[in-house]
Write a structure and sequence with these properties.
heterodimer, A: alpha+beta, Heat Shock Protein 90, Helicase, Ruva Protein, domain 3, 4 domains, 8-stranded mixed sheet, 6-stranded mixed sheet, 14 helices, B: Arc Repressor Mutant, subunit A, Dna Topoisomerase Vi A Subunit, Chain: A, domain 2, globular
């Protein structure tokens, strides 16, 4: 028998796998690891796309989410928006091709980041039910509406169009998708219900209509007509760059000189800084970017990290803003006290970010239980992996006792409180592709703590004042209750008439009231 | 009945004073002598603890005082109306239950725990100068008596030499007992009921012609009053037998000079000429009890330091010597430890020897 070298034999077995096939086998990486979560992920991807689309054309979003239960573990999810719609040619690519999108290569604050989103939902649908995804879209009242039925060719990562027709649709513009999946519907902290409620809180400019599988109808009406400030796209900041990325940028650039490259491809590099970087890397400002060898690129990379460069611009960020966050909270959460904080921008690894925190306290919130923590990244609620998230770490490490709450060890505080933390960034560092937990960067944790402390101080003032005034009122009310008792005892002890004593005691109380209030106030 | 009217009148006076202030539009107040070490004096002449003249005022219209003020008047009215005016007696516990009710429209009880009403009754004693007994309030019976004495208790004649192993159960109010026939030559009071049982079984009181009295733990007022009466009316010497430790020394001092909490009642309770029979630190050496010593802990040492500074011990050389020996020996000893020398060593050797040799501490 002829010996086949092992390497050759192995080579025959080795073949490239398509990205679709990879995700087919690793669906947990995308957050589709169990039926309950899959249902939420599909809704989430749909809603994220709708919100981003509306924001892009500056429309106040109106999003309808409807879930039909077909049988015990089959659901049809419909998400409909009033966004700009999608041009006919793009529809198959957006829904039928993984990693297709405009967001991946941009440094811009957006809900989704990798463009896996909605096509992953299509893939999951096809995998669990074999059904195609239905898409309705219209871009203008002057153009017809289009209807598509699609699947993904997983080998080629290409859309497989099963139906493509023009239809009647009584909507001027917008998109509607229908995806059938295997899933499970549960209520609770990690449910679709909660996801939509939290999304409504952090998107106070959007209206949501949500019909649950149990046919309950929720309407979350917008609290403001003010559209969020549009996030600008920025160039990478030198501190956030990696060597490989720098190499690719040098190859791709249209600049002819190194100085030109530095000034045009990065943010915050001007004439002087560019020259300084070149000097430090022992390179000439007019070197050709495409001609640098590996060693030179490494020197350039090190120099980029060493030279002092201004923090990236922050107009690329779109925080919810304290005022609107409070509006969002007030409409969805019934509490006695609300406080919100928006920090000024900070930077981690060259990426600008803004932390916003809020606290809702008292009212209908449960008194004795552990605080509810609501986490958000770029206006998307994070419902899973709370324990792995940098936000959780920052909240637990904050000393809530100093703000009038109970807290045992490094846990969440207890009391009638909901704590909100939102991170807005051009690039949120998630721990994995399910995008449910933020990675533990010191700069991020520090900023969250500072924001929480600011809210905490205000909460403390409120608790002190509120409890003090309440206790004072209660104590003074008590005298009114004690008076008849004392009058009765005194009339038993002497021969005095109870009513006379009672009347006279009431007169004394009136006289003593100012002193009592003053004393009581001074004591706390 | 004269007594009862006097008590009832005094409580009524308290109420009338309060009403007068209310009628004048004043914030009503009750003045109470302070019952704390800071206001307790040791009277060198009478050799008893006395209450000083520091007072505190309790106001109704004061957030911190209101509830106690109400409690004071409410309990005063209960004592007057339910007890004194009807001639009935009630336990501390019973008074607590009569007073325990909820103020309408609140979730506040006039009293929540018995300690509260107990404290108020003590307050009323110092306010009115009446004893608890005079207010018709009794406490739990906690003591026994056996020996050569015949008494009349509520019309029943009781020969305390014929009461078996249990003896006579000392009532909480002993003012009204009548001493009919007393043959005993002295009274031996001990803090431990177990020793009482030992001595009773050994017929110690018969052989030594005495009276044995015990309490279980703290010496109650009833026992102290009874001992005082036996001392004053029957001129019997009173000997106190306690554990050889700082707590025993304090029990002895309470019987002899009075206590801080009841300093206002010293006159009726103290026995300035009673004597401490044991166990002394010298006994530890003389009766070879060193091996029975229990090591002192920090709490014991702190208490020795505290008690040795009390006015009534401060200038007492004999007791200061005892305290020093306690610290030197670093130990304390229980009465029961004498049993190592034989079960009846205490009744056959120890006590007879101590009494015969007048080996007593003042």
């Amino acid at each position: 028998m002829k010996e086949v070298p092992v390497a050759e034999r192995l080579a025959k077995e080795q073949k490239s796998i398509s990205i679709s096939e990879f995700f087919l086998k690793n669906r947990h990486l995308l957050g589709f690891d169990n039926p309950t979560r899959a249902l939420m992920m599909v809704v989430k991807e749909g809603v994220d796309n709708s919100l981003d689309a509306c924001t892009e054309i500056k429309i106040l979003p109106e999003i309808k989410v409807e879930i039909h239960q077909i049988n015990e573990n089959r659901f049809v999810i419909m998400v409909e928006d009033n966004g700009p719609g999608i041009v006919k040619q793009q529809i198959p690519n957006i829904f039928g091709k993984l990693l297709y999108g405009s967001k991946f290569h941009k440094l811009k604050q957006a809900r989704g980041q990798q463009g896996i989103g909605i096509s992953a939902a299509v893939l999951y649908s096809q995998l669990t039910t074999g059904k195609s995804t239905k898409i309705y879209s219209r871009i203008s009242s002057k153009k017809p509406a289009h209807y598509f039925e699609l699947q993904i060719d997983t080998k080629k990562n290409e859309p497989n169009i099963l139906k493509d027709i023009e239809i009647e649709w009584n909507k001027e513009h917008g998109t509607k998708i229908e995806i059938e999946i295997e899933g499970r519907y549960l209520k609770g902290k990690q449910s679709v219900d909660e996801y939509i409620k939290e999304t409504a809180i952090v998107n106070p400019h959007a209206t949501f209509i949500y019909i649950t599988p149990e046919k309950e109808r929720y309407e979350y009406i917008r609290a403001t007509e003010q559209l969020p400030h549009e996030a600008k796209e920025i160039k990478p900041h030198p501190y956030g760059i990696e060597l490989g990325q720098l190499m690719k940028m040098l190859q791709d650039t249209r600049a002819n000189t190194l100085q030109g490259f530095l000034q045009s491809e990065f943010s915050r590099i001007g004439d002087l800084t560019a020259k300084e970087i070149c000097n430090k890397a022992k390179l000439k400002p007019d070197d050709k970017p495409k001609k640098l060898d590996h060693k030179q690129i490494e020197l350039l990379f090190n120099s980029l990290q060493e030279v002092k460069i201004m923090a990236p611009p922050s107009d690329c960020l779109s925080p919810i803003t304290s005022e609107l966050l409070e509006k969002g909270l007030r409409k969805e959460i019934n509490a006695d006290f609300y406080v919100t904080t928006t920090r000024s921008p900070s930077v981690y690894r060259g990426m600008p970010f803004i932390i916003e925190t809020a606290i809702a306290f008292g009212g209908e919130l449960e008194k004795e239980s552990q605080a509810r923590l609501m986490r958000f990244a770029n206006r998307v609620p994070l419902l899973y992996q709370q324990g792995a998230c940098a936000i959780t770490e920052a909240v637990s490490e904050t000393s809530w006792k100093s703000y009038g709450l109970n807290q045992s060890g490094s846990n969440l505080p207890t009391g009638p409180i909901i704590i909100f933390v939102h991170m807005a960034s051009v690039w949120v560092p998630f721990t994995n592709e399910a995008k449910e937990a933020i990675a533990h960067y010191d700069e991020i944790i520090k900023d969250i703590k500072l924001a929480l402390q600011e809210c905490g101080r205000k909460l403390n003032i409120y608790i002190n004042k509120n409890i003090r005034s309440k206790e004072q009122r209660e104590k003074i009310n008590l005298f009114e209750k004690y008076i008849p008792e004392l009058a009765l005892s005194l009339s038993n002890l002497t021969n005095a008439k109870k009513n006379d004593v009672e009347d006279n005691l009431k007169k004394v109380l009136k006289k003593e009231l100012p002193t009592l209030e003053a004393e009581n106030g001074a004591k706390e | 009945m004269v007594q009862k009217n006097k008590s009832s009148e005094k409580l009524k006076e308290l109420g009338e004073k309060v009403i007068k202030e209310i009628d004048k539009g004043k914030n009503p107040s009750i003045t109470i002598p302070i019952r704390a070490l800071s206001n307790v004096l040791f009277n060198e002449r009478t050799r008893t603890l006395e209450l000083g003249n520091k007072t505190s005022s309790r106001y109704f219209f004061n957030v911190a005082h209101a509830k106690k003020f109400l409690q004071t008047i409410e309990i005063a009215s209960i004592l007057k109306k339910e007890l004194l005016d009807t001639g009935k007696h009630e336990h501390l516990r019973g008074v607590f239950y009569i007073a325990k009710r909820t103020v309408p429209g609140t979730n506040i009880n006039i009293v929540d725990e018995q300690v509260e009403s107990d404290k108020i009754i003590e307050d009323l004693e110092v306010i009115t100068g009446l004893s608890r007994e005079e207010l018709h309030v009794s406490a739990n019976k906690m003591g026994s008596l056996v020996g050569s004495i015949t008494m009349i208790d509520s019309g029943d004649t009781i020969d305390c030499s014929k009461l078996g192993r249990g003896g006579y159960s000392i009532p909480s109010i002993t003012d009204e007992l009548e001493f009919k026939k007393v043959n005993a030559k002295y009274v031996l009071y001990m803090e431990k009921a177990a020793i009482f049982e030992r001595l009773n079984e050994d017929k110690f009181w018969q052989k030594n012609n005495c009276i044995l009295v015990t309490s279980q733990g703290q010496t109650t007022r009833g026992i102290r009053r009874l001992l005082q009466r036996l001392s004053e009316e029957e001129k019997l010497p009173i000997y106190v037998l306690c554990d050889g430790d700082i707590y025993g020394a304090y029990i002895y001092s309470v019987v002899k000079y009075g206590s801080i909490a009841l300093a206002h009642a010293s006159e009726r309770l103290t026995i300035p000429n009673c004597k401490y029979i044991g166990i002394t630190m010298d006994d530890v050496i003389n009766y070879d009890l060193k091996k029975q010593l229990i090591k002192l802990d920090e709490k014991d040492l702190a208490r020795i330091k505290q008690v040795s500074q009390y006015d009534w011990f401060k200038n007492n050389k004999n007791w200061q010597r005892q305290f020093k020996m306690m610290k030197d020996l670093k130990g304390k000893v229980e009465i029961q430890s004498l049993a190592t020398r034989g079960i009846s060593f205490i009744s056959e050797v120890y006590l007879p020897e101590k009494i015969k040799n007048k080996d007593l501490l003042e």
